[in-house]
Write a structure and sequence with these properties.
Immunoglobulin-like; 30% helix; binds alpha-D-galactopyranose; TIM Barrel; alpha/beta; 6-stranded antiparallel sheet; 2 domains; single chain; 400 residues
Length: 400
């Protein structure tokens, strides 16, 4: 066995096909092979997040069973940044007295730590961004032990418009260059970092984000904890499936499950849609107030198995009529996941066709109702179901 391990690099070198040198170094394949899962501070704490909040979040991710369910990244969003010293080295602000110690703590829990910055001089919350300090910042992140970077356009918008006031194409080119610059800086720093682009979907980012090293990219505007926001974002993802896959994911934004006044059905619909969309699952709720109901939604193994399916095929919308939509995605073992969503205000009483054929399934396939936790046995297109306001039926279909 030890001999085999010693010889492994040699064997791999022999069997690996010859490749021409790529112009851009791709991110390591193992990173984000399935959509990243974790928690992010922004949706709940906003600018108020502190070191103590992050430690507590890490503790609860472990004690609640979220880590076991796959939530690994603990991400500090905007408002951790302090000032630069005389050498340009960024320091965290007074809310984060020792970022390295915080990273060590998070790592000691079997979790990973993420940070946030901007290619601009200022972040969205007007803290210092990385403009002109990209390599310095990437090196700092590596020294601290950072595993994930969300890189948010914000302040760079001023820079790109001022650099080319009347030339939109040039502005967009500069934006890509800025994202590629941090990508190269991260590679140079030498620590594997999941690279998350946040520029709200500009310039069909899904078409070029992997070329600048992104593992995920926001496809649109900021989410908020209302069903209207969740529905708008989810419905806007139609047509984007072909751009995502292992190592590179569309990101409809962080989860609001457990936030605001979302009902049980709305929280479940939100979670189901994000799982169907192979979305990164970054919880954004106050973990100190986790209820059994919210924990159950966030850690539902059947839903997470859809999100994390190794085939990595995001769902397509196969049917839409009024408030009812059906989305489906193929799964690695030949199963098909089907979500029937009622975006409307009224209870939907009639069964409608499940459109099994369009989903790649067919009559006689067996269905498992994920939220209902029951086998429905063989089904056909005319399965009679009722959907309450904002409810989603999620079926895992298996060939009989
Ligand atoms: C932007 C992003 C949000 C969040 C804030 C922080 O609005 O889209 O997700 O990171 O900035 O300031």
């Amino acid at each position: 066995m030890p001999t085999l391990i010693r010889l492994l690099p040699l064997i791999l070198a022999i069997v690996a096909p010859a490749r021409s040198a790529p112009t851009i170094t791709p991110p390591p394949a193992v990173l984000a092979a399935t959509p990243p899962m974790g928690w992010n501070s922004w949706n709940w704490f906003n600018r108020k997040v502190t070191d103590a909040d992050i430690r507590q979040a890490a503790d609860i991710i472990v004690s609640s069973g979220m880590r076991e369910a796959g939530y690994l990244y603990v991400n500090i969003d905007d408002a951790w940044e302090g000032t630069r010293d005389a050498h340009g080295v960024l320091r965290a602000n007074e809310k984060f007295p020792d970022m390295k110690a915080l990273a060590d703590y998070v790592h000691s829990k079997g979790l990973k730590l993420g940070l946030y910055s901007s290619p601009g001089a200022l972040t969205c919350a007007k803290f210092p961004g990385s403009y002109g300090h990209e390599q310095q910042d990437a090196d700092l992140y590596a020294a601290w032990g950072i595993d994930f970077l969300k890189y948010d356009l914000c302040g760079f918008r001023t820079i790109m418009t001022e650099a080319a006031p009347n030339d939109k194409r040039e502005q967009l080119r500069l934006m890509r260059v800025a994202y590629e610059k941090m990508h190269q800086a991260l590679l140079q720093a030498g620590r594997p970092v999941v690279y998350s682009l946040c520029q709200y979907g500009y310039d069909a980012v899904w078409q070029w984000a992997p070329e600048v090293g992104a593992h995920l990219w926001r496809t649109g505007d900021d989410i908020n904890a209302t069903f209207a926001s969740i529905a708008l974002i989810a419905r806007g993802q139609a047509g984007l499936a072909k751009y995502s896959g292992p190592g590179h994911w569309n990101d409809p934004d962080m989860l609001e499950v457990g936030n605001g006044k979302l009902t049980l059905d709305e929280n479940r619909t939100h979670m189901a849609l994000w799982a169907m969309l192979a979305a990164p699952l970054l919880a954004g709720n106050n973990l100190t107030q986790l209820t059994p109901e919210i924990t159950a939604i966030l850690t539902d193994r059947d839903i997470i198995a859809i999100d994390q399916d190794p085939l990595g095929k995001q769902a397509d919308r196969i049917f839409a009529e009024g408030p009812i939509e059906i989305w489906s995605r193929p799964l690695a073992n030949g199963d098909v996941a089907l979500a029937v969503v009622n975006f409307g205000q009224d209870t939907f009483l009639r069964g409608i066709s499940l459109h099994l054929q369009a989903a790649g399934a067919g009559p006689g396939w067996h269905a498992y109702d994920i939220w209902g936790k029951k086998n429905l046995g063989p089904i056909d297109d005319h399965y009679a179901f009722t959907l309450k306001r904002h409810e989603t039926l999620v079926l895992r279909l298996t060939r009989s």
